[in-house]
Q: What sequence folds into this?
């Protein structure tokens, strides 16, 4: 396939405003007048992380420091003016649901190397880098002269728990060897061999490097997979499966659209001997099957006392897509462009065929932010049924139950306009044996309209959790193997919830409940 072009990982102001929601700028290019923006209502998420202003894209893996997660994200304070380049902005959180903004921690354009792209930070407890025990060391991609072989890895350090960073060595700690794509370092501690390991995006290869001191790196091997574009924002971690076995996972944000696959987080389970990763299978699995779960990161799950849970990790992503990154009404209505997915808990499970897969569920910490729960019980439907409940930010939980061989189609219409012209459909096409999310009935930003994942239709049931917020719909299905994340933009009054079932036998929406959340 021809890789999807991704230029700089810096943000450019290419704001091709979403058609029906567009509010014209003034002749000088200034943002729309306040009264124009207010007419749209707010598009800021009620319970998802959003950047305070301007632009965000890639999340950076959170660190556990002083009893809280330090979460950095790529941020451009100059987005509205059109100036490119990103910094690292910091937010802290005890649960990765509610966050406190701490401002820019690693600035852009303050060294000859330019602005800061994606990378990763670690806590250097043993002072391996020589900046002091407990120093936060960030390895960051920077591109000094915008040539095709300029991307290199630079070291920054922080002695105040990641609140502010200073540049380390003048030059890169891992110079570009003469290749086009050489970015997004993900550094982990290999405790078995007492050294650092870096996974690096190198177009169709994830390069694996090791270091004793975070400054001198040795190339060990390359994990190559063709057909998925540039393997960006790599990830590498070890996890204990539910059956007690230990496994390594290597992953990257990849583009499988040419083959009808997602453009999200592709992962391989396997083994790692400190130098080489050996995958259990040639083809990847995918942690999300929607179009808008990109540049994902995972991090350790910590208890309140800081203990690491070996059987679970947290994961979340930038809820956007490089095919249409600027097509959002949030900039016009609220002055920002940048929302994350909900944080999910991931675990490793063994399937019936002996393979292992990552299962996802919304983080249990979200339950603490429930403001109201409406329990509807079992709701039979034959045709279409509109619920009394309305809203733009909520979760639906329940179990779809149908009659195999009789029911054709069963599901939900969400963010539905009062007249019915706009809605997101989430359901199971029983006759086809798949679950689906279709945002084509909304003012969606572009790209994929509908996504599918398989369902065993003959079982006659499927558990669902659907998280709806003002610009996103996230659908968790069954055992968590399949998740769909979509951006979907409605108008402020698009708040109707309806159920539908066709085929003559109807369906039952079992144990149905709607939970409303609020954060902050």
A:
């Amino acid at each position: 396939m021809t890789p999807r072009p991704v230029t700089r990982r810096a943000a450019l102001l290419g704001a091709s405003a979403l058609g029906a929601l567009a509010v014209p700028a003034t002749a000088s290019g200034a943002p729309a007048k306040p009264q124009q923006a207010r007419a749209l209502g707010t598009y800021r998420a009620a319970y998802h992380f959003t950047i305070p202003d301007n632009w965000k894209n890639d999340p950076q893996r959170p660190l556990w420091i002083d009893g809280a997660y330090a979460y950095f994200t790529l941020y451009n304070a100059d987005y509205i003016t059109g100036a490119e380049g990103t910094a690292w902005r910091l937010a802290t959180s005890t649960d990765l649901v509610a966050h406190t903004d701490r401002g820019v921690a690693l600035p852009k354009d303050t060294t000859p190397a330019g602005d800061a792209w994606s990378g990763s930070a670690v806590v250097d407890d043993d002072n391996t880098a020589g900046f002091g025990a407990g120093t936060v060391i960030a390895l960051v991609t920077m591109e000094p002269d915008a040539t095709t072989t300029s991307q290199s890895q630079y070291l920054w350090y922080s002695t105040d728990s990641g609140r502010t960073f200073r540049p380390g060595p003048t030059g890169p700690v891992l110079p570009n060897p003469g290749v086009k794509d050489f970015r997004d370092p993900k550094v982990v501690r290999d405790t078995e061999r007492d050294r650092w390991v870096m996974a690096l995006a190198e177009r169709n290869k994830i390069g694996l490097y090791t270091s004793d001191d975070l400054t001198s790196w040795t190339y060990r091997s390359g994990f190559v997979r063709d057909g998925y574009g540039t393997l960006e924002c790599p990830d590498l971690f070890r996890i204990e499966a539910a059956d007690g076995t230990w496994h390594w996972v290597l992953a990257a944000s990849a583009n499988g659209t040419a083959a009808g696959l997602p453009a999200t987080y592709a992962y391989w389970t396997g083994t790692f001997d400190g130098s080489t990763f050996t995958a259990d299978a040639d083809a990847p699995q995918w942690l999300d099957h929607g179009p808008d779960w990109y540049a994902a990161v995972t991090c350790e799950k910590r208890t309140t006392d800081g203990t690491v849970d070996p059987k679970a990790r947290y994961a979340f992503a930038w809820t956007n897509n490089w095919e249409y990154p600027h097509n959002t009404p949030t900039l016009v209505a609220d002055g920002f462009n940048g929302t994350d997915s909900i944080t999910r808990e991931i675990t490793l499970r063994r399937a019936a065929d002996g393979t292992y897969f990552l299962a996802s569920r919304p983080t249990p910490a979200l339950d603490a932010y429930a403001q109201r729960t409406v329990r509807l019980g079992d709701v039979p439907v034959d045709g279409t049924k509109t619920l009394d409940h309305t809203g733009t930010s909520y979760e639906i939980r329940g179990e779809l139950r149908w009659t195999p061989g009789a029911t054709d189609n069963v599901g939900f219409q969400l963010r539905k306009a009062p007249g019915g012209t706009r809605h997101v459909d989430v359901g199971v096409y029983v006759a086809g044996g798949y679950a689906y999310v279709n945002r084509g009935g909304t003012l969606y930003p572009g790209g994929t309209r509908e996504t599918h994942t398989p369902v065993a239709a003959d079982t006659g049931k499927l558990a669902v959790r659907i998280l709806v917020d003002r610009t996103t719909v996230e659908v968790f299905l069954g055992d968590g193997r399949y998740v769909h994340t979509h951006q979907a933009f409605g108008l402020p009054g698009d708040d109707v919830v309806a159920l539908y079932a066709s085929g003559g036998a109807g369906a039952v929406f079992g144990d149905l409940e709607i939970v409303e959340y609020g954060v902050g």
Q: What stands out?
A: The helical segments are 34-38, 330-334. The radius of gyration is 23 Å. Residues 34-38 form the longest helix (5 residues). Confidence is low (pLDDT under 50) at residues 1-39.
